[in-house]
Each structure stands twice: as C-alpha cells, then as structure tokens.
Amino acid sequence: MSDTSKRSTIYFDPQLHAALRLKAAHTHRSLSDIVNDAVRAALAEDQEDLAAFEERVSEPTMSYEALLDDLKAHGKL
C-alpha cells in the first residue's frame, strides 16, 4: 500500500469474504489489491457505458408501444 491509500471498512457477506481470502492466498495478493482491481474494473465499465450512451445520443428513439406496433405490423407478433 502506498502512503496515499485510504482506509475504509467494508462489510462482506461471510461466504464472499471466505472466497476473497482464498483467492488472495491462492494468487499471493492482498484482499485490498483484489478489491481495488474489482472497483477499478467496475468504474471503467461505467465509463465505457457512459461513452457509448454519449455516442448514441443522436440516434432516433422508439417507444415500447411503437416497437410492439411495428413488430405486429411486420408479422413478428
């Protein structure tokens, strides 16, 4: 851990905690490293999702009702 790390208390489900401890021991990593990597991955995925939404903001939208009507009109329903 670096000097800039922050300490936090996290409450895990006991079975998840046991799995994390086993993974940490098996991979020779700390629980903190595993949790930090998981949080980074989740935040990166959020960033990718936001970028995808931004790229599609100008696409036309269709209501659910209009979608159903279109499916029915084309014999899909």
Automatic annotation (TrEMBL):
In Swiss-Prot or TrEMBL terms, this protein is called CopG family transcriptional regulator
